[in-house]
Amino acid sequence: MTTPAFALHIPTADLDPDPLDPSQIVSGAPEVTGRVLSESADGRHLRGIWQITPGVVTDVEADEMFVVLSGRATVEVEGGPTLEVGPGDCAVLREGDRTTWTVHETLRKAYAITLP
Q1: Average pLDDT for residues 86-100, to the nearest whole number?
Q2: What is the DSSP code string of 43-106?
Q3: Partners of 25 in beta bridges
Q4: Residue 32 and residue 54: Cα distance in Å, rounded?
Q5: Bridge-partner residues for 60, per DSSP?
Q6: What is the CA radius of gyration of the chain?
Q7: Distance CA 72, CA 87 (A)
Q8: Segment 77-86, tens digit of pLDDT
Q9: pTM over cut 0.70
Q10: Is 42 left (phi over 0), alpha (psi -120 to 50) or beta?
Q11: Average pLDDT over the chain, rounded to whole?
């Protein structure tokens, strides 16, 4: 089933808890919430909203493009660039990128992910 057309005000959208694996937390007590807005029939293409409170976490990324709506973070890509992202910034991460996110202010982003 495909998702019908819709519009949503991202800054005030309700999100669901999406607990981090404790092994991902480097420092602080960051909490993650999110909401998948649409998913392709084969489950490979996801679009949604993701939010994280301040702290430092690690991750292994999917092929993703995101736009930051609010908040600020430093995203260090192992063997690659360090990205400073804030409101209005668009970023692209590659499948398999190992990242460390230092979240300075609660960050909310809209994303599009493609899974292998």
Answers
A1: 98
A2: S-EEEEEEEE-SEEEEEE--EEEEEEEEEEEEEEETTS-EEEE-TT-EEEE-TT-EEEEEEEEE
A3: 57
A4: 10
A5: 98
A6: 14
A7: 7
A8: 999 999 999 9
A9: yes
A10: alpha
A11: 96
Bridge partners for 49 per DSSP: 35, 110
Three-state DSSP state, 24? helix
Q: What are phi and psi of 14, to 5 degrees?
A: -70, 135
Considering the chain, what percentage of its residues have pLDDT values greater than 90? 94
Assigned token pair, 19 = 């607990």
Chain position carrying tokens 């981090």: 20
Count of residues for the chain? 116
Task: Count Cβ atoms below 10 Å from residue 72 Cβ, excluding itself.
Answer: 17
pLDDT at position 2, please? 64
What tokens does 109 get? 């982003």
Can you tell me the distance from the alpha carbon of 10 to that of 108, in angstroms, rounded to the nearest whole number? Answer: 9
Residue type, 98: R
Interatomic CA distance for residues 84 and 4, integer angstroms: 34
Distance CA 17, CA 36 (A): 12
Confidence (pLDDT) at 4: 81
For 47, the token pair is: 């679009």
